[in-house]
Structure formats: structure tokens, C-alpha cells
UniProtKB/TrEMBL annotation:
Chain coiled-coil ranges: none
Gene: Wdfy1
The protein, known as: WD repeat and FYVE domain-containing protein 1
Main location: other
Role: Positively regulates TLR3- and TLR4-mediated signaling pathways by bridging the interaction between TLR3 or TLR4 and TICAM1. Promotes TLR3/4 ligand-induced activation of transcription factors IRF3 and NF-kappa-B, as well as the production of IFN-beta and inflammatory cytokines.
Length: 410
């Protein structure tokens, strides 16, 4: 059955369905169980919990397991009901969950890292568990033997991970603001390229293997879309959050990007339009509008007997301009600027009122968000964070899609 796309009026917002409380410390990860009314959580309080929805409508833990070290990351494979939990001590533990989700059996421990595990992914086809950690490396291990296959080290903490199961390419974001694309082999790997564009540490990644798009969120409050498949180096900048972007999820069916930030902001970006790339900032010794020298241009200041000015940049054209030639501020959503940014006076005049129409909707999660996960087939989202609360949301009013797998706008 074909998907049905509904209109997305601004008044619609995520609907809070449930709050799950009980953790004694920050919740590191929360995942919705596919086709079940259940959530799996892992926390800094050293517990893994499986919460099932009871007839009363409340979620109660059917599994409560205490680990030896705080839980920092988690991956769950529903078809095989295998769960991998990364810990603060660098180890990853694998468990198998029973069909009724009332029992969890220990399988094995993987000595993956020497420090906190930051992200995990599991590939069933190759039987690899791939992870990143604060020991500045990405590791991949064999789940059959439990042995280490390979490691690759970076200059900074490896903070997040995405993996293309078909091509065996891994995307690793780190605290320096760089993303490294690796080709993983059985016992070795090769660096394909590095992506540089963020001004802060990479906090979240999302890979869409269909359109071959990579999305990255960072502590600089921005999101960048990297067109990996296009091979043209095309990048789109999205700025609308006011705190670090903690989690992102791209919905390929509706061409929408959902993002969450540390201040509780939830954004839904319309990517089903032709957006403009933000220009590269140009360098100049003098204002490219009025030709007044900038303060480091001592020769021109001396020749013209003028005081040097501070350099700014127009976000629309990228030209280096002085404050007097860039007195205006404007949003420009087609280029990803959802709030007002500095533009030169001539670019301000060229922006029409319709150009300022928002291409994203912004909502308030009303709690600290450090992790988010979506069950796209049902339009559900789960958020969690340092406030120890897990929230389950109905996102269908804002993502506005109805799938053959069974969810629709309620």
C-alpha cells in the first residue's frame, strides 16, 4: 500500500503518551521494542530494564538487571532479541531476551574498550559488534568467537557511530568536530575520507542508506546534511536549535528529519524541498561592500588614515563585511537559518517575506534530552536524559505519515 502524506499545519505537536520513571540516575539510552508496547532502558545507575505496558496503561519493569558498571550505550536487534550494552568500564555485554520479555540471559562479554563506550551497532550478516569509545578508538569484534577483529584510533574521543551494513562503511564522529569514513575489513580498515564542517564536538549521526545521506548533529547547535551518494561534496546546514543537538533521525518516506537538543527542543525539518547550500565565508583585508579596512590591515589604515573595523560575514552571500554594511538580521530557512542571522544590507533587501517562511516545526519536550530513538513504522519516539525520566511520544501529528505497517494520525 502506498504511503499517504498529510498536511503538516504548524499547530500540530507531538503528543506525550507516557512517562516512565524509576531510574536513580541519568538514563543513557532508551529503545522502543518493535511491535510491542515496551521500552528497553539502560542507565548510569547500572541497570538495564525492560518496561512493558500493563492493562492499567502504566509501564512496569518486567526485567530489572544490575550491571557491574554504569551503562553508557545500547543496541538491540529485535529479530534475534539480542541486546548489547556498553559500559563505563569499556566492556560490552551481550544478553538474549526471552520471547515474553520476562527474562534476560547473559551471553558473553566483549573487551571492546579501555574507557567508556559511547556507541554500539550490531551487524547480523557479518556477526560483528562495532563500537566507539572514550579511549579514542572504534573497534569491531566477532560475536561468534568474542574475539577482537580490529581497532582504529583517532586523536579525540570517538563519540558516535553509524554503519552501512551493505558496504561495511563506518562513520565515526569525534570530540574534535570531525567525522571519519572508514571501510572495515575482517582484520583491518582503511580511511576513505574525513568530513569537517562543525565548530563543536559531534554528538549524533544518522545514516540513510537509501538516499546515501549522512546527517550530523553537534555541540555547535547545528546539523549538517552530507550528500555522500552524490559525490559532489554537497552539504546543507540546518540551524534552529539553541543548545547542542543530542539526537537525530531521518524519516526517508516523508523526507523529514527529527532532531532533539539538550534544552528539550524537538525539531522536525522538511527535507523534501530544494534547499540552498550556505556559502563558504570569503576572506578579505577590507569590507567587500564599502572597502573600509579591517583592523589587521595596518597598511590600508595608514594610507587612508582610518581606524580598522571588525570583520563579519553575511550568512547569505558569504562576503566579508563590516558592521555598518551588515546592520540587518533575517531568517532564511531555504539555507537552513530558522532564526535571525547577520546578513549584509543588500542581501537583506533581496530576501522576500515568503523566503522567511519556516521549513521546520519546533516543539518543547519539557525535559533534558540526551538520547532519542524512533519507531518510524508506528510514529513513536522515546526521549530520555539526565532528569531520569523517559518519555514516549506520538509523533504522527507532526511527521504526518500513514504506513501499511499500521500507524496513522490519531
Amino acid at each position: 500500500m502506498a504511503a499517504e502524506i498529510h498536511s503538516r499545519p504548524q499547530s500540530r505537536r507531538p503528543v506525550l503518551l507516557s512517562k516512565v520513571e524509576g531510574h536513580q540516575d541519568a538514563v543513557s539510552a532508551a529503545l522502543l521494542i518493535p511491535k510491542e508496547d515496551g521500552v528497553i532502558t539502560a542507565g548510569e545507575d547500572r541497570t538495564i530494564r525492560v518496561w512493558l505496558k500493563r492493562d492499567s496503561g502504566q509501564y512496569w519493569p518486567s526485567i530489572y538487571h544490575t550491571m557491574s558498571s554504569p551503562c553508557s550505550a545500547m543496541a538491540y536487534h529485535h529479530d534475534s532479541r539480542r541486546i548489547f550494552v556498553g559500559q563505563d568500564n569499556g566492556a560490552i555485554m551481550e544478553f538474549h531476551i526471552s520471547e515474553d520479555f520476562n527474562k534476560m540471559n547473559f551471553v558473553k562479554t566483549y573487551p571492546a574498550h579501555q574507557n567508556r563506550v559511547s556507541a554500539i551497532t550490531f551487524c547480523l550478516a557479518s556477526e560483528w559488534v562495532i563500537s566507539t569509545g572514550h579511549d579514542k578508538c572504534v573497534s569491531w569484534m566477532c560475536t561468534r568467537s568474542g574475539s577482537m577483529l580490529g581497532r582504529h584510533y583517532f586523536t579525540s574521543w570517538a563519540s558516535c557511530l553509524q554503519y552501512d551494513h551493505e558496504t561495511q562503511h563506518a562513520f565515526v564522529g569525534d570530540y574534535s568536530g570531525q567525522i571519519t569514513l572508514l571501510k572495515l575489513e575482517q582484520n583491518t580498515c582503511s580511511v576513505i575520507t574525513t568530513l569537517k564542517g562543525h565548530e563543536g564536538s559531534i554528538t549524533s549521526l544518522w545514516w540513510d542508506p537509501v538516499q546515501r545521506l549522512l546527517f550530523s548533529g553537534a555541540s555547535d547547535h547545528s546539523i549538517i546534511m552530507w550528500d555522500i551518494g552524490g559525490r559532489k561534496g554537497r552539504t546543507l546546514l540546518l540551524q534552529g536549535h539553541h543548545d547542542k543537538v543530542q539526537a537525530i533521525c531521518y524519516i526517508q518516506l516523508t523526507r523529514q528529519l527529527v532532531s532533539c537538543s539538550a534544552d528539550g527542543g524537538i525539531a522536525v525539518w522538511n527535507m523534501d524541498i530544494t534547499r540552498e547550500e550556505a556559502p563558504q565565508w570569503l576572506e578579505s583585508d577590507s569590507c567587500q561592500k564599502c572597502e573600509q579596512p579591517f583592523f589587521w590591515n595596518i597598511k590600508q589604515m595608514w594610507d587612508t588614515k582610518t581606524i580598522g573595523l571588525r570583520q563579519h560575514h553575511c550568512r547569505k552571500c558569504g562576503q566579508a563585511v563590516c558592521g555598518k554594511c551588515s546592520t540587518k538580521r533575517s531568517s532564511y530557512p531555504i539555507m537552513g537559518f530558522e532564526f535571525q542571522v547577520r546578513v549584509c544590507d543588500s542581501c537583506f533587501e533581496s530576501i522576500k517575506d515568503e523566503d522567511r517562511t519556516s521549513l521546520a516545526t519546533f516543539h518543547e519536550g519539557k525535559h533534558n534530552i540526551s538520547h532519542m530513538s524512533m519507531d518510524i513504522s508506528r510514529g513513536l519516539m522515546v526521549t530520555c536524559g539526565s532528569d531520569r525520566i523517559v518519555k514516549i511520544w506520538d509523533m504522527t501529528p507532526v511527521v504526518g505519515c500513514s504506513l501499511a505497517t499500521g500507524f496513522s494520525s490519531r
